Each structure stands twice: as structure tokens, then as C-alpha cells.
Amino acid sequence: MIIPKLHYISQGNSPAEHLENIQKACTSGAELVQLRLKNLSEKKYLKIAQEAREITSRFQTRLIINDHYKIAKDVKADGVHLGQTDHCPTVVRKHLYTWQLIGGTAHTLEDCETLINKEVDYISLGPFRFTKTKTDLPSVLGLAGYAEILKSLNTETPIIGVGGITTNDVTDILETGISGIAVSGAITADFNCIKLFHELLAASSTAEQRHTFGSNTDSKPT
Into which EC class is this enzyme placed (predicted)? Predict the structure, then answer.
């Protein structure tokens, strides 16, 4: 299955604002959106996830649910993203549909190796730089950190850079071997920049994408 190279991680001061921003991201051409809400009851989260699924379905945008794998299955999201303190990907895999993606968060080479052994579909590696989106942030990796980890990994699992990334960073980040990027703040500040992100990502990967599309046989319900 092809993992889009740009992930928008939802942001907002309320669940309604998250949905509004997801709508804006889809309208602006986002191919994958991750619904990332904290401190909500399961019932409330399910309702918001259902609404997010309705929005993304209209635009044929992929929807990833952060943490809540049972909700991801309930709303037939395209997958779930698991943080380091969340459930084990191997266990979660048994509960999901076969076509649903599992992504995992990593901060170190060892984290990446663990996730690869647990056969996740992609890894979000960060933080690239300091970001206010998360509290208790681990050490910033930067370009040097990415290059060192990617050189040691030598994996076909897509590694997605995350953490304070802007359009100015894309070209340099991709040169480290990173497959794509996950962005929250920069896109929420200006949804028009999605187009530029796509252009920068495509410029370095057009040939690779052509090859991947040719071999894609995966199917899933609409």
C-alpha cells in the first residue's frame, strides 16, 4: 500500500476546530489526515471520528486515527497511529481490518528497529526541531540525527519526519533518506502551503512514485 508523503496532523482549540481544519486541509488537497485529539471520552471521540471520516471520504482523503484503534476500526478509517505509550502494534494488528495501516512513533534508532520488527506500515520519526504541539518533548534530531538513523536502518519501511517542519526544510530532509513528512503547525497556519509541500515532495520522488503506483494491488472498501 502506498503511504502518502505528506501527513496533516489535525490541530485546533476544540474538537469542532479540528474538524474545521480537517475540512480545510482536504479542500486544499491533503492526501492523508491524522485526527489527533487528547483528553476526550471514548464516546465523544467516536462522534468526532465519524464526522472526520465523513469529511475525508468526500475528498477521498485517507484518515488515520491517533491512538484509538477500536474507533479506527469502527469508523473504517484508513489506519491508526500509535504513540510510544499506546498499544503494541502486533496486538492492534489482530483487531484491525487487513487493509488498515498502522503507524508508530519513534525518537531513536532503537525505537525504529522495534517498530520495524513489529511490522508497522510507517514510522513517524522526530522531533525534527522543537515544537509546541507536544509536551515532554524528547531530544531534537535535526538533519544530522535523521541522516545517522536512516543510514543505520537501511529499511524499506517509510520513515516520516515530524516536528516543526516547514516548506523550507523539505528538500534537505528528503536528502537524509526520509520518505515523507507529517506537518501540523505550518499547515494549520496556512492551508495553501499544502500545494507547495506536495510540489517539493514530488520533485524528489516522481520516479519512485511511478514505480510504486505500478505495483499497487491493494484494495479497500469505500
Answer: transferase
